[in-house]
Amino acid sequence: MIKKAPLGRFLSGNPYPNGLTDGLFYREKMRAIHRVAPAETGGFGRVLEIGGGRSGLASILYPEAEIVTLDIDPELGEHQPSWARSTFICGDACSLPLDDNSFDVVTMFDVLEHIEDDHRAAQEALRVVRPGGYVLISTPEMNWHYPYFNAMKRYCPHESALMREWGHVRRGYRDPQLTALFNRRPERRATFINPATAFFHDVSFSRIGRRRRKVLYALAAPVTLVGYLMHRPSTRGTETAFAWRK
User: Is 99 part of a structural domain of the chain?
Assistant: First the structure.
């Protein structure tokens, strides 16, 4: 059996150095993931993180688990977090070199929107998770756009440039599309980045210098703090975390 880390400890692992300003959007994502992730799972104590990159989120979420990190980029195997207890495998999410029913949890955090054959990737995730296990994902909604506020456009790169840089092949998903990918409705869902917190996200990826960013963060902080504290799993957001149980 593996247990989920307490929320505070999980959030403290935010890989962004300024987790309450530039990295607030990532903190919001982590909170949503924590909300949908099962508190504990039986089985093998194994977690597969598909497309984990350098974040090591699965290791933070389930610190006692045996973690396998899979990514199509072999260079990422040399840049895993030093504290992450994981085995790296170079592989394709659409053809996992792994046995059926061999993991308790499979994670795909900000992954599906980068994969052309997303249906195949979803079915592969379901194949390798054991009966009763979970598939956890996070992804942008179809209404995601950047910047969120039009007044920020003059200070921000065009969203198409960001999507190219990030390797997106689609903007995001509506819930029915994900239900079709996984052949079932999710057991849990939790949104993140609402209209009150989106300004920090706009500033984070803007071309504004550090000093001016600090001023903008300070001015927007009261509204952003309220928006963060009041956000519930069902609050309207631009991105969402989901959990499917096999």
Answer: yes
Q: Which pTM value belongs to this model?
A: 0.95
Which CATH number characterizes residue 178's domain? 3.40.50.150
For residue 21, being part of any structural domain is answered with: yes
| Number of separate domains in the chain | 1
**pLDDT per residue over 134-164, tens digit each?**
999 999 999 899 999 999 999 999 999 999 9
Whether 120 is in a domain gets the answer yes
Report the alpha-carbon angle 85-88-91, nearest 5.
150
Give Cα separations from 97 to 50, 58, 85, 92, 115 (angstroms): 12, 19, 20, 8, 17
Tens digits of per-residue pLDDT, 62-120? Answer: 999 999 999 887 776 666 655 556 788 999 999 999 999 999 999 999 999 999 999 99
